[in-house]
Amino acid sequence: MEKITYGQSVEKGDIVEINIPNENPIKAVVLDIIQSYFGENCSEYTHIMYTQDNRLIKAQQQYSQDSVEEYSEEGEIIGGYECETWSPIQYEGTIIDHCEIPQYAKFLI
Asked: pTM for the whole thing?
């Protein structure tokens, strides 16, 4: 079955750009990912990130997966595909206003 993906998953160590309300977008490195919800065909993830302005923040991302089947006029399955969707990463809040993690700061210049 063919697989179609919308959006992008994130892994530990990835550098992403995140929008923080009332600020310009900033770069952040993903330090940890916690699966905070798991349902039948969807999941929610919490990302812990270190930003280029030395903040530790929390962000959320949703994932869903659906199977789409195509049928003939006789009702037989003739094809289909899997569709997975990753939402944009959404800022949830600041954990620590200022901290320095030197090994990650060099990646965010």
From this structure: 0.80
β-pair partners for 65: 84
Distance of CA 22 to the CA centre of its chain: 21
| Degrees, nearest 5: CA angle 42-45-49 | 160
CA distances from 3 to 6, 22, 68 (A): 10, 37, 10
| Nearest-angstrom CA–CA distance, 5 and 11 | 16
Q: What is the pLDDT of residues 58-87, one digit of tens each?
A: 999 999 999 888 888 888 888 888 999 999
pLDDT digits (tens, 9 = 90+) for 1-25: 688 889 999 999 999 999 999 999 9
Please list the residues that pair with 37 across neighbouring strands.
44
